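User: My instructor asked us to take a sequence, write out its structure as tokens, and then describe one feature of it. I'm not sure where to start. Here is the sequence I was given:
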Amino acid sequence: MLERVREEGLLASDRPLVAMLSGGRDSVCLLDLSVRLLGVEGVTAVHVNYGLRDDSDADEAHCAGLCERLGMALEVDRPRRPEGPGNLQSWARDTRYAAAARLALGRNALIATGHTADDQVETILYRLASSPSRRALLGMKRRDGSLVRPLLDFTREETTAYCQERELAWRDDPTNAGESYARNRVRHRLGPALAEIHPAAARNVLRTAELLRDEAEVLDSLVDAELGANGAERGTIELGRLSELPLPLRRLVVQRLADRAAGRPVPGAANHADEVASLRRTGTAMLDLGGGVRAVVERGVLHAER
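Assistant: Let's start with the prediction itself. The structure tokens for your sequence are:
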């Protein structure tokens, strides 16, 4: 595992690393591998204690003990849970990424998570069921800006074996064993059901996603060609040219414009591609694309804006 992570090059020796540490086996494996590759001076561990479970402080203490064993400091964030209704998992996810980003920003550091191949399969299956878009099948990227996932080619079984061989203890989150969250139901029901249909189901899902990511690069290059200008994306296109494009490419162009305007994915923006192409080409015309973004045509030229 050490050599494969080294060869992949996601953990660059010329940049410090912020490793997200929950205390589970995957994050423990990630932290130990990172320290072995970059040294303790090149890695900062960050743990978020949400205070949502009775044993949250025990998780924090475990992470502190691990970092002490490795000879490194641990940064701990203790956010206050917002009052009122809301998606608790989304809040927790946003909170831990924000904590890592704050640490990484001032150090020009990469951020590493312990996502594994098992997480990738579960993510793809969950998104396939909940999100009607091409993105659902692409899964998580090994590198997404400053975020890296060095364990994405390894299974949970492999990270477990690594920790056992290195005599590294970990903490199991008891909420992962329940089925109150949709992600857990994918893990405990859907995954095993697919394995009963075909023993290579998980590998086939991963291979399909890999092929689709390769093909997505080709599609993205076609969008680049329509929106590119001297290597820099313009963010505009003549409405007449948009109307001439094949419908699949037209959808991708509209989606790219919406995502670029929002600074994040805008689910469903591509569904409005035909409506956008039908906007009038004289004066100014606008169309809501969802997600707080609208298409705007001015004198026959299309762009998207918040």
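For the description part of your assignment, you could build on this observation: The chain has two domains: 2-118+141-175, 228-305. Try explaining in your own words what that tells you about the chain.
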